[in-house]
Structures are given as structure tokens and as C-alpha cells.
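Usage example:
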Amino acid sequence: MSTYDELLKISEQLRSMERALYLLAWDERTYMPKGALEGRSKTKAELSSLYHKKLTSEKTKECIEKLNKESKQAELDDVEKAAVREMTRDFERKYKVPDDLIQEMSKVSTKSQSAWEKAREKSDFELFLPHLEKQIELKKEVAEYIGYENEPYDALVEEFEPGFTAEKIESIFEPMKKELSSIVSEMLSINKKPGEGVFKGKKFPIEKQKSICRELAADLGYDYDHGRLDETVHPFTIGMDDDVRITNRYSEDNLTSLFSLMHETGHALYEQGLPPEWYGHPLGKRISMGFHESQSRLWENFVGRSQEFMDYLFPKLQSEFSNLKDVSKEDFYRRINRVKPTFIRVEADEVTYNLHIALRYDLELGLFREEIEPEESKVVWENKMEEYLDIVPEDPSHGVLQDVHWSAGQFGYFPSYALGNLYSAQIFQSAKDDISGLKQNIYEGRFQQLREWLRDNIHQHGRRYKAEEMTKRLTGEGLNENYHIEYLKEKYEPIYGLV
Amino acid sequence: MSTYDELLKISEQLRSMERALYLLAWDERTYMPKGALEGRSKTKAELSSLYHKKLTSEKTKECIEKLNKESKQAELDDVEKAAVREMTRDFERKYKVPDDLIQEMSKVSTKSQSAWEKAREKSDFELFLPHLEKQIELKKEVAEYIGYENEPYDALVEEFEPGFTAEKIESIFEPMKKELSSIVSEMLSINKKPGEGVFKGKKFPIEKQKSICRELAADLGYDYDHGRLDETVHPFTIGMDDDVRITNRYSEDNLTSLFSLMHETGHALYEQGLPPEWYGHPLGKRISMGFHESQSRLWENFVGRSQEFMDYLFPKLQSEFSNLKDVSKEDFYRRINRVKPTFIRVEADEVTYNLHIALRYDLELGLFREEIEPEESKVVWENKMEEYLDIVPEDPSHGVLQDVHWSAGQFGYFPSYALGNLYSAQIFQSAKDDISGLKQNIYEGRFQQLREWLRDNIHQHGRRYKAEEMTKRLTGEGLNENYHIEYLKEKYEPIYGLV
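Running the assembly step on the lines above writes:
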């Protein structure tokens, strides 16, 4: 067996373990009985440890060292080189961190998440503070082991957005923040509440929502032969190659479920668009978290919350829900695009969303640059919230304690959400340029062309191209926040009568 | 860490992998999308291989060799000795078989099962014959590697019934067959069809059946905090320590679902009765397949199909199903205890059931003793069917091709089903002796005392005691088929008017 084939075999074995871990995670969040947490934790810990051992084994190291030699590289074609590059990255990020530090992180995370849950419940930041401090300390250590270009945070963000650094993110986020803040304050000054009353006092039977969602996912191109749709508290998508599962949640008070469904379907179409011959292959994965998010946001917002899509969907909704008979399509459209500053990120509209992220980014970067002390986090959060959205949370459970990420040690993750929104604007513009009649397609409920375009141009390449290269291939330029800003202006000015 | 603690750690790790494998199997049979089979097979193969490597590792071998030395044994208490004994058994059964043979068996089984499916579909024994021959050949090899007392079949049956041999099984099955045959032919000569028409032409809404089953399992003591009930084609129970799941199937034409539910609940109560401090411990498992089956049969037949239970259940059924209003409890009781020779084992009543097993046992033992040639299997089957049940299947899909076991190489498995029935009769007699008012309890729907008796006397001991020892502890004697025969006579004579 050639060294390259050996590497492919290791990749396949790792992916098998990953699929098992993913199923354990899916089950834990859908059907696992509540008393099964202890056994489940042990099972996951054992498999994670086996995965780690395999990825950082002497065998893997040997293969990777050999394949990175100049003489070997010369024998490889472009796909093979990319495969070696990605496996090398995966290997190094784990190999460089000592086992005892990994074990400590795992233990600290368990305690920290449990402390965070209590702290959030009691809305008491002080309960979480020592755990936040510990997590930051450990992640700084990790950053030193992994290495970085300019500053420790770079090593963390690289986990989620390969090729990105704090500096690069700042160069995008700074102008974005200014633009978004100015759009938001302009909107708020108008004090208009579009579509007010569309959902008020109405009930939307959940079984009907479920059947509409089920059909909608299929219409968008989701393949139920290789997936399934279940209910959860926090919707998520899990990709296991030929088995890509989505989940959704439903409230009878509104129709938010339609958009969370489209969000998860966007993720799922990415996973289902990966080429089957690359299942288990080092390249058979998404480019980055941000790219994944771009696919969910594109379907949720650029398709789902568009005028054209409402032309297609709203009559269907009216025929299912008699309480929408007297609602105009225009009001419905305005309601689902209402801009309203909120304390909670996951409830934010598409205009304010990236400001929620910018706030978190400012804060975590400040923590890692040691310009902010952990104990100041709560106050910094509140001040920034006021600065960006003109609201101040009354308690930390609606502020600094609202997200699970930091308690799990996931520093550097938040930017991906905002980058996803930025990518989606830029990608959608490119799709519009390439597909004549895209709006007409959406209007008529034909999504195949867009889906195929995304598949051909993005999904089928797995992570062969890094984010920056892929963005250039797709759009002729690197990531540019202006697409997002222009899209928002163009869409929201009519809604808010700003033109 | 002491060598014994090292062994416990290995046992914990193995159990974690096993829990993951079990969840993969559960999911495959409940919720997995149909297009996900390929990925799933790879995932299972990888985990199975990791499990095998761990169990047969040099580390495990070293621990086991050390702990079996006389000097070490002297340091161990009884539980520890039993733990070492069971781990040694597990280890040796795998370690002695060379890797390439295991891999060949795995490949052959895949092909063989697929050939069996086709053969059964087309009812063409010849399509399966070469695979049957290959499986027998491989299992003979395995038997040689593992070693045996008298004959190769002993090595196979030991997998499912530790401590049993062909000779021992024969000494039980031979008198059992004679007795059962005579009971059956007496019944058939009467040509009575008790409870005829109880289900005929009636429909029982499945949603109602489901809710009755859900409640019934809870009444018997099944703990939903550590389990769940789902629907499948072939009901099964899967035990993952603090997560024991049952499944059931439903037909609107009858109420068989109640008894399959009680069967699976019986299995589940065994698993849920294992002591939590032994999760992952070498002793935290069932004694044997036969003992497991004894628990399911005890609840299904000795409780579920009893007069007392009907007193409890039937009024409930009548209030749920208005089409049972005109049916008498007595007729219902007779109907669910109808004895009717059938071609299909899984549809057999409790009188004929063990004859189905005896037939398979005769055949597989004959094959391994080389007294029967594989190509004769179909005819031998038909002749034995006529001999035992006085019916002859018209095609092999209702005969020799009906069970999956041989295509999966599971020779030596069938006796467990019959042993389960025998154990359950003997155990139930012992429970009756110990629990005064057991019948009254059942009549009133109070199952706690019986369940606790089973837990205290059987479940909580895991596999500390081997089957023979456990039987003696429970009943003062070894396995004795007469309890089964006496039970059947006592129960069925009134039903068939034989007294």
C-alpha cells in the first residue's frame, strides 16, 4: 500500500469513529432517555479518546511526514496535495497539544458547562467567573502549543476558520460594525413596526407546521433517503456522509419553524452535496464553519425571507392556516423581516445579528489580548450592547451568560456566524449573476438550479480549496463585507421607508 | 494500578465500545434512513475491529495471564475471581481464533445473509446451499481453534450457553421432545379450536394498542427514565446499562402486540435489574442467552397468558376496544393460548415452540456431527416437521430458509430459545413457592413483588454465577425439563378439555 493510500485508510477509519460519535450526539439530543447521560458520557469519552489516539498515532505521523517531503509532494496531483494538506492540519492541531492538557480541558469543560448552566439559571455571573478564567488560561496554553502568526487568538480562530486571523477578522468587522450600527439606528429612529399583529393572538397547529416543513425541505432538495427530520429544543444538522439528519423546533405562536427548517436544510444540502466518492476522504468535509453557516443563511434569508419566496409560500400558508386569510402577503413579508434589537443572539434578525457577533468578538479578543479582565466581561457586554443596539440587559442570563460556547472552551467560534452571513451575501450575488431568472425560479418554487449551482461551485469541492481561494473562485474577489451591507440596505430601505 | 484494576479498566473500555455498537444497531433498526446502510456498515466494522483489538490485545492477555496465576487468585475475593473467570472466557474465545479467519467469517456472513435473503424470497434452497456449506466449514474451523469437550458443536453452543454441551442439551431435549409430541398429538386429536372468532373480522386501532403497551410496560416496572419504546419490524431489546430500549410491532388485526411487549419488557427488566455499580464490569451482564430468554418468556407467558393476568387486563381491554364487549374473558384467554402447529417458529404457541427448536437442534447437531449433509437439510427439515407437528411446509421459505441465524453463522444459538422456556417454568415455580399470594398479586395488577424477587435472585447477580449454579441456587436442582411439561399439562388440559 502506498503511503498516500495508507493516509486515506487512516482518514476512513477516523471518519467511521466520527460517524459513531455523531450518531451518539444526535441521539443524545433527540431520543436518548434522560437517565442515560452517565453511560453516554463514558461512551463518548472512550470513542473520542480512540479517535484522538488514531489521529495522533505514530503511524499517522509517519505517513504525514513522508507525504510532506518534497520528493513525495512531486508525485502527488492537486487533489492529493490538498488531501495531505488538510490531514496535516488536522494532525498538527491535535498532535501539538499534550495529552494531559487535552484531558484537563475535557474535565474543566464538563465542570464549566455545569457551572454555566447553574449561573445562567440563577443569573449570577460570579458563579461562572472562575470557570471562565480557567478556560481562558487553558486556551492560552493550547494556543502556545499550536502556535500562531501574530497573537494567541489566531490559533483558536484557525480551528473554525482556517486561514483567518484576528487581524483579518478585524479588518472586516470594523467597517461592518460602523455600517450596521448606522443602519440600525436609522431604522430605530423611524420607530416603525412593520407587520405588527400578523401573528398576534393566533395559533398555528404544530402538526400542520410539521407537515409543511417536511414538504418544504423536500422541495428545497433535501433527500430523505439519506436523512431524516426530527424535533429538538435547539435545531441542528448532523452530517454522517450518506446519512445527514436535520432537526427543528415548533411553537404554535408563530411560524418561525419555517425559517429554522430552511436554515437546517441549507446546512444539510451542503452535507448532502459532498461527493460520495469522498466520504471518509480528507477532503470530504466543509471548508469552514463560516462556509457552512453561509449555506444555511443563504437558504434561510436570501431565499426564505425574500419577496419572491413569499409569493410562492404565502398562498400555501393561507390555505393551511385560515387565520392568515385576512393577512396580506406584504404584511407577512414585513413581519418576518422585522428588525428589532433583542438581548438574545439566536432570536436576532438579519440586520442586528452580526452586531451580536461583533460584541462577542470584541470581548473574547479583548480577553485574549489581556485588554479586558475576565471579571469585566459582564460590564463590557452591557456597555457594548448599549453602544451597538441601544439596549442593556437587566441580568447576565440575557447578557454575557446566554451562550454555551465559552463554557465549552470554544473561543474563536463566534466569528464564524458573522462570516457566514457575509459569505452568503457574496455567494448569493454571484449565484444571481450566473443564474438568469433566479428570482423567477424562486417565485415559482423551483429551487433546483440554485441548489445545483451551489453543489457544482461549492459543495462538490469539499475542502479542496481554502475559504479565501474558494471565495475568489466564486466571486472574483476575497471576502468583502460590502455585499452584506448593500443587500441589507437594498432589502430593508423599502420595508422601513428609508428610501 | 493493580492488575485487577487494569482488567476492570479494559472491561469499561470494551463496554463503552459495545454501547456505541449497540446504539448503531438500535438506530439501524428504528430510525436510520434507508440510504445510509453503506456508511453504517463501515462504521460498525471499524468499531467492531477496535473492540476486537482491545479484547485480544497484549495488554489484556498480560492481565489475564497474571490474574489466573495461583498466587494472584489467592488474593482475589469471590466476585473478583468470577470477574476474572468471565473476562478470561471472553478473551480466550476471541484470542484463540486467528484474525484472518475472523475477517473471512465477516465477509462470508455478509454474502451469505444476502444470498439467504434472495433464497428465501425465491424459496430456492439451492441458492443458499453453498453458503450454508461454507458457514459450516468455517464454524468447524472456529471450533477447532477454540477447543471443546467432546465434539465441535460444544464449542459453538458455549458461546450462547456457557457450560452447556451437545450431550447435556440432548439429555434435556430428548425427553422433552417425547413429552411435547405426545401433548401436541393429543390436543390435535381433539380438534378443538378454543376462542375461535375472538379477533376475527375485528380491527384494533394501533394508536390505542400503543398507549396500552406503553402503560403496561410501566406497570410491569419498566423504567422509561432509562429506556424508551419504539416501533420496529422485528421487536428487540437492547441493553446499554443506564439506557435499555425496547421495541414492539403492532397489527390492527389482533392484540399480539401486548404479548410481544411483555416479552421485550421481560428482557428489559433483566437489563434494568443489573446493578449500576457493575455497569462496564465483567460481571455486569446476563448469564446466558437462555437465561435472558427465560425472563422474557416468564413475563410473556407465565404472567401475560395466565388466567390471573386476564382478570386484570381483559376489563381494561374491553373498555378500550368496544368490539370486545361481547367477548367473554374465558374465550379471550383460550384464544391467546390457542395451540396450533405452524410452519413459522416466531408465530408458534408455547406448547409447540420447543419442538420448533428441537427440530433445528437435531438438524444443526447432525450437520456438525456429519450425520447429515448440508444438501439434505431441506428434506430433513420437512421430515422432522411432519414427525413433530404433523405438517409439511410446501416451500423452503416456510421451512429451512425461515430463520436468519445460520446465514449469519450462528450455529448453537437455537437451543437458547428452548432453554429459556425451560428455565422460565422452573424459575416461576420457585417464585410461586417463595411469594405467597403471587397469583393474587397478578390478579390485582401488582407486579412489584415478582419483579423484585427476580431482581434480588437473578438480575442483581449479573453473570457472577454460571447457569447451572444459578439454577441450583434458585430451585435447589439443575435444569429440569419437567417443570415446563408439568406447567403445560396443568395449563392446557383444562383449555383442551383433556382432564
